Amino acid sequence: MSDFFQNGIITNFHNLTRRSVEELESDLVRFSRRRPMGLILPSLYSELEGPALSHIVDELARVPYLSEIVIGLDQADREQFQHAREFFSRLPQHHRVLWHDGPRLRALDGELESKDIAPQEPGKGRNVWYCAGYTLASQRTEALALHDCDILTYDRSLLARLIYPVANPQFNYEFCKGYYSRIADGKLNGRVARLMVTPLIRALKKVFGPLPYLDYLDSYRYPLSGEFSMRTDVLTGIRIPSDWGLEIGVLSEVHRNYSTKRLCQVDVADSYDHKHQPMSADDPDSGLNRMSLDIAKALYRKLATLGVQVNAESFRTIKATYYRIALDLIEIYDNDAMMNGLKLDRHSEEQAVELFAANIMEAGKVFLENPRDKPFIPSWNRVQAAIPDLLERMHEAVELDNQGKV
After folding, report:
1. SUPFAM superfamilies recorded for this chain (predicted)?
2. Dihedrals phi, psi of 266, to nearest 5 degrees
3. Strand-strand pairing, 376-377 and 240-241
4. Distance between CA atoms of 238 and 216, rounded to whole angstroms?
5. Per residue in 162-185, is it b (16+ CB within 10 Å) or e — as a string?
6. The dihedral of CA 258, 259, 261, 263: what is its sign?
């Protein structure tokens, strides 16, 4: 049972009564008459063959309030795109599959590249960015949600709770982040959030003093969740990273653009499990190794934009402070797990902290050595200024692809 405590500087929506999904959906159907709603699903083709996505689609087929579902499809050839169209065809809502590797969208990407405003690398950030562009072009929604396609414990109540705060016309929220407990198979999961992000934010607060931005980030119960919702007009002005810093980057952008009174978080699930990334300790370009590096870089970049001066000495202090806080948290998590009858491997937890501590230093080195790095994909406002008709042509390209004219 959730508590009702409001901690931090953003509004927290709890799950106090376990209100039924049917009641929530009844409200959302009513809201949809004034505020049409949509959903973005960033997906790899491999997820169509995984254990989660087919069930997610079956659940979404029962959702009565969505005006549009936009599926971003990565790493798919022509035959796989055709299969994806068939796979999602059981959705009764208006839906479109963005074939990012198809010739039409690749041609538009090349045009953006010629203007130096294209996403710099493949990944979830690039996928979401193009889906956002199509959503703006289609003009079918005023509120939308985004969630991952590998959620093993998915049911449609997650979506209903996630989109409710930005869909309710009586509420004034522009952005909402979902949170949940990362527990599965009797184990406490969520290592990057627990052992890297939270202690790093608290270390930065100790080193640089209280900053509104750090207090803001520390208010989120699960800052790395891939589930969030927003008013559609939020998409026009935010810049997002194309790497693993996507979630932190989005939180940073909405903090820059909106008052914290218009930002919130919501409890969306009692249990949540999805595909687990390997630690990949020997490969800095994959898994949690790469993720932790990109997240640290995203935080350093944001601090620099706030006028915080960082140097090599700063990073050594940050690492030492982080390490002590993280080890203390391991003790707390171990005790919490034991009381709840869960398993926690303290040895692997400390190994993870050692890797994250090394990446805190490595990220600082990369940050200092690449002052001209352009980590953010330009906002859609900038794209429209550079190529005024691009959204219209993207919409046309997606329609042609989905009509089978490939």
Report:
1. Nucleotide-diphospho-sugar transferases (SSF53448)
2. -140, 140
3. antiparallel
4. 18
5. bbbbbbbeebebbbbbbbbbbbbe
6. positive
Closest CA to 9 of 216, 158, 280, 202: 216
- For residues 382 and 189, give the distance between their C-alpha atoms in angstroms, rounded to a whole number: 39
Its pTM stands at: 0.94
Token pair, residue 242, equals 């194309």
Contacts of 378 (CB under 8 A, 6+ apart): 117, 239
Q: What is the pLDDT along the chain (406 residues), one digit of tens a residue?
A: 467 888 889 999 999 998 999 999 999 999 999 999 999 999 999 999 999 999 999 999 999 999 999 999 999 999 999 999 999 999 999 999 999 999 999 999 999 999 999 998 888 899 999 999 999 999 999 999 999 999 999 999 999 999 999 999 999 999 999 999 888 888 888 899 999 999 999 999 999 988 999 999 999 999 999 999 999 999 999 998 877 778 999 999 999 999 999 999 999 998 888 776 777 667 666 678 888 998 999 899 889 889 998 888 899 999 999 999 999 999 999 999 999 999 999 999 999 999 999 999 999 998 898 866 667 899 999 999 999 999 999 999 999 999 987 6
